[in-house]
């Protein structure tokens, strides 16, 4: 286990502040998008080819935002051997609101009871899918401030994305990501290049407090997303030039990978292509024999006139296809297999990217991330991996901790669309119902999953954790036990950074 926190605040600015450990959780059940196309009576390929989606994770009435976050935090702490006393800030980014006053962060405090640690700053942060990024920035800002007491920050992003029956239902999903933030991290936030675009818009919002479902202006939402992307990319580019990390004519060359908030995978592909268009229009002497081949006719287009121009879209998607495969496609594993997780969506992309890399291939790489939340709030920022490849070091631990991501995705249970539809109807009927006793089976949940046991007449929610020992014969989920044992052992020498 890790030792206690430093007794005094470090003198000077903490260095290499960023993500030390990352854990992701998604539900154990999914619906296949090909089967859902047939069930919904839409044309074959509408969800899979048109939107780029493969599977969609969903929760039964046994899981809510509190249980998702309890599960992912418990897993992060357990798998990495972290002492609960070493957390000084805990902040949750979510738009899945089940109480207008009590924060999900306050529910998570029950995990800290045995440690006696109640001196933990932070509450929930809300603005559609942007809350997780705001929480991450707040955590980094705390560590780099005079308020920092030498302990780690814990950032949690979690949501359940559900839609009413209709065209948008296939773009749902659910999940949570937890990130341990501190100095001397293997994945470091770049200083001085964070850029943001904030604007008032009603593109996606949730005014009906009695329903889980949003109100969506689909066309406006896409326009807002792409406009925010343009603005953030322009501002990030200017700051990257000033910081000396953009030396050529293309910001696409700054990052080895580009990660995006992913409402659906095809929008990410279009967004990456749009970055190429941005670079092309700013390049004073574009190379039409290279990456800009075939774009000659677009030289005088205006970005603000191209949001729904199919001719422009097709041209830049063709021109950028190879770069997209190199820099973004592999980061869409979770987005394709789980769906839109809202606040964790971008960080599910980060987990996907890391899971496909080795220590040798990832060391020293820079990644650029775009976060978007309707209403609207958006930011672009970059991070870089340490080039320290020491065996047993922080980078190796981070990479190894996500090496089983594909295996975990493949171990889920496929549910028939009719059963998925029944589950959605149950959620509609029982949303905010009290008292209520959930009826979803516990046996389908992953070992170690927290789940809802009861909502009493005063709307107080109670939870339990599914143990790692399963079945009447005391069967042990050995894969999970071995995973935890391996990571606790490899992290046993980690220390809270001294003052």
Please tell me about this protein's structure.
Strands 1, 4, 5, 6, 7, 8, 9, 12, 13 and 14 form a 10-stranded mixed beta sheet that branches. 33% of the residues lie in helices and 19% in strands. It has helices spanning 33-40, 65-80, 104-108, 131-143, 218-243, 265-282, 310-327, 333-338, 345-355, 359-362, 394-401, 405-410, 417-430, 478-490, and strands at 18-25, 29-32, 55-58, 87-93, 124-125, 152-161, 173-182, 187-189, 195-198, 204-205, 215-216, 257-260, 366-373, 377-385, 413-414, 450-455, 461-465, 469-470, 475-476. Mean pLDDT is 92; it is low at 1-9 and 472-499. It is α+β, with helices and mostly antiparallel strands and 499 residues long.
Instruction: Please summarize the sheet with the most strands.
Output: 10 strands, mixed
Instruction: Give the radius of gyration.
Output: 22 Å
Shape summary: globular
Number of helical regions? 14
Tell me the strand percentage band.
15-25%
The oligomeric status of these chains comes to single chain
Question: How many angstroms does the end-to-end distance come to?
Answer: 19 Å
Can you tell me the residue ranges where pLDDT is under 50 for at least 5 consecutive residues?
1-9, 472-499
């Amino acid at each position: 286990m890790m030792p206690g926190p430093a007794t005094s605040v470090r003198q000077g600015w903490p260095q290499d502040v960023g993500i030390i450990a990352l854990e992701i959780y998604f539900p154990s059940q999914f619906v296949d998008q090909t089967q859902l196309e047939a069930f919904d009576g839409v044309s074959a390929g509408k969800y899979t080819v048109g939107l780029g989606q493969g599977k969609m994770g969903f929760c039964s009435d046994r899981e809510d935002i509190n249980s998702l976050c309890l599960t992912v935090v418990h897993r992060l702490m357990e798998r990495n051997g972290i002492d609960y006393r070493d957390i000084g800030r805990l902040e949750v980014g979510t738009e899945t609101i089940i109480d207008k006053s009590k924060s999900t962060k306050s529910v998570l405090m029950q995990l800290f009871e045995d440690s006696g640690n109640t001196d933990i700053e932070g509450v929930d942060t809300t603005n559609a899918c942007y809350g997780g990024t705001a929480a991450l920035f707040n955590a980094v800002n705390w560590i780099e401030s005079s308020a920092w007491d030498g302990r780690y920050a814990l950032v949690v992003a979690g949501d359940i994305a559900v839609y009413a029956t209709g065209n948008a239902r296939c773009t749902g999903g659910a999940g949570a990501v937890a990130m341990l933030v501190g100095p001397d991290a293997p994945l470091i936030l770049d200083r001085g290049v964070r850029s943001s675009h904030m604007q008032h818009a009603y593109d996606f919002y949730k005014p009906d407090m009695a329903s889980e479902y949003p109100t969506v202006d689909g066309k406006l939402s896409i326009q807002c997303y792409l406009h925010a992307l343009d603005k953030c990319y322009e501002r990030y580019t200017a700051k990257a030039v000033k910081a000396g990390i953009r030396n050529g004519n293309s910001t696409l060359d700054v990052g080895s990978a580009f990660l995006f908030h992913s409402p659906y995978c095809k929008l990410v592909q279009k967004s990456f292509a749009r970055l190429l268009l941005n670079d092309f229009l700013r390049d004073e002497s574009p190379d039409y024999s290279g990456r800009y081949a075939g774009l000659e006719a677009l030289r005088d287009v205006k970005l603000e006139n191209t949001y729904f121009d199919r001719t422009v879209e097709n041209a830049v998607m063709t021109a950028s296809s190879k770069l997209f495969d190199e820099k973004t496609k592999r980061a869409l594993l979770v987005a394709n297999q789980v769906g839109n997780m809202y606040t964790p969506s971008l960080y599910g992309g980060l987990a996907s990217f890391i899971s496909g890399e080795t220590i040798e291939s990832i060391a020293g790489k820079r990644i650029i991330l775009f976060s978007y939340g309707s209403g609207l709030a958006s930011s672009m920022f970059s991070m870089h991996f340490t080039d320290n490849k020491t065996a047993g070091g922080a980078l190796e631990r981070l990479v190894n901790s996500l090496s089983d991501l594909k295996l975990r995705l493949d171990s889920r249970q496929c549910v028939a669309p009719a059963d998925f539809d029944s589950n959605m109807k149950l959620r509609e009927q029982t949303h905010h119902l009290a008292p209520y006793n959930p009826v979803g089976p516990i046996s389908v949940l992953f070992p170690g999953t927290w789940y809802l046991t009861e909502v009493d007449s005063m709307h107080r929610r109670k939870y339990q954790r599914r143990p790692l020992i399963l079945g009447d014969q005391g069967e042990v989920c050995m894969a999970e036990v071995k995973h935890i044992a391996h990571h606790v052992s490899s992290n046993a020498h980690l220390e809270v950074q001294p003052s």
